[in-house]
Every structure is written in C-alpha cells, then in structure tokens.
Design brief:
The chain is an alpha/beta fold. 39% of the residues lie in helices and 11% in strands. It has helices at 3-8, 34-43, 68-75, 139-154, 161-185, 201-207, 224-234, 250-255, 279-311; strands spanning 27-31, 49-53, 79-82, 101-103, 118-119, 125-126, 193-195, 211-213, 241-244, 261-264. The strands form three sheets. It has a four-stranded parallel β-sheet, with helices on one face. A four-stranded parallel β-sheet has the order 8-7-9-10, covered by helices on one side.
Amino acid sequence: MTPLLAILTGCVSSPPSSAVPEPTASVSVVAGSVTVHHLAERIGAGQPWELSLLPPVDADPGTWRPDAAAVSATQAADLILLNGAGYERWVTTTALPATRVVRTADGVPPLQTGRRTHSHGSDGAHSHGDVDPHTWMDPRAYETQAVAVHAALSRLPGADSTALDAALHALRDQLGQLDADLQAAAPVPAPPMASNHPSFGHLGRRLGLSIVSLDIDPAVPPDAGTMADIHDWAASGEMPVMLWEAQPSAAVMDALPATVVHLTLDPLEHPRPGRGYAHAEQAQTNVAALRSISRRRAPAESHRMGAGGGGR
C-alpha cells in the first residue's frame, strides 16, 4: 500500500483488487437522425456515454436503410433516440428493443398532410405518409423533443443530473429566442404560400401560415398537371411565395408564373456544407428569409397607397 493510499484509507488493509474500481462497460446512445443527435449532443455534453449518429449526415431518413452491421449495433445500444412521426421509415421493418427506444416527437401534436409522393433528386420517389415528420421546424415542438431526450438521458447509468438540467435550460432559452424571432419575422397578413416539398408544415402551423405543398423538384420543371395546380395557387392572392428546400434552377423558376416570389429555406435536416450542424444558427437564415417577404411587400403597398391618395 502506498503512503498516500494508507492515509486515505485510515491504514485499514484490504486486498489489492478491492482498491481498484472494477471497469464498467461503456453506455452507448444511438440517434436515428441529425436533429435528434444534435439534441443528445447538446444536452448530454460531458456525460460518460458514447453517442453516435446512425445514418450518414447527408442521408434522407425517408429513403436510407441501415445495413446488417448497423442494425446489430443499434439493437445492442443502451438507448435509441428517434425523431418518430414516421421520419425514420426503416424502423417499421426492423426489430428494435422497445424498452430502449424513445420517439422524441411523440409529445408533439401530429400534423396531417395527406399521402403524396415526392423525390429528393437522385434518392428516388417516396412518401412520408399521412403525418408531417418535420417537427423540429417548430422551435416549441423541438423543445418538446429536447425534454424527451433529457428525460431519457437522465435515466442512464452515470447521469449527472445537474449538468443535464443546466444544458436543457440553456437549450430551451435558445429555442425560445428562436421562436420569438420567427414570430416577429412572419409576414402579416400572410401572402399565398406553397412549398416544393412538405417540410414546412410544422413551421407554418406555429406561425399561423397556411402553406400548400406542391411537390416540385427544384431541378426539374413541373409537368402539366402540377403546373395547373401552381397556376391555381398563384392566382389566389397577391405576391404568392414559393418556399424551396434548395435553390431552384433557372429553368424551374422560368416555368412558374412571373408573379411568384422564390424563397429558399433551410429544412434544418443536415449540416451546412463544410460545417457542423447548428439548429438555431441555421434557423436564423430562415428568420432573415421570412423578413424579406415583408420588405418586398412594403414598396408595393406604399406604391398602391400613393396611387390611391393621388386619385382622391
């Protein structure tokens, strides 16, 4: 026994093996999407667990499928965090241990969309079903998911509840500020709005915006049937706004009515190229984009008021 150890133990002798803590197996946490991984990473920072993201960061959970090795590793994890709401479609055909799976969006009121088929470029056509899974677009819904992640992490061995609580508190403050920024940026009254993909329903519901999904590939001009839907929508009011997940091609923009305003929003599903995922920072680009609608509308409204005043 070393002199220091003798002092610490009060000179009580013990077998050497009892003086060395038994090694404990690492605790593994697997996240099924970038958005949920971000919550676990923020809330569980510094905790003694191994956190991993199951799909590649640029994968679309609507089409991605894990291989046998990934399924086996996930089944062995101590905690499996999913978005839920139909986002990770592969789980419907994969046996996972129910007691270790947390679908973080279960506490978010579902948003019905209707089943429509769409595509993501080379990923092929698919449908998410009748429920919009893009819950993280609404900061308050994402906060609900954060609370679910916090509760799940708090039950793991070695959890530091004080650190977990502090991290959740900071994250909720950040999401509250983001929500306030989005509310302030939302155009009032709202123009007719549509999206090329059903990604912005939860954001629209939070901001009181009615957003029609028209399912348009940003790289390919719409077919005749879709163009008819677009013309009907564009004629429903002044300055119709089309929301895009990605910058549309010149050919696509030329195909749409000239009155349409094109606005690209970040669907917040993936990191920015060359940078890590940062939900609140990326969402600030959407705040700026929504503010631009009001700025574009203001000159037109001023012009109409001036013209009206001159006629009296």
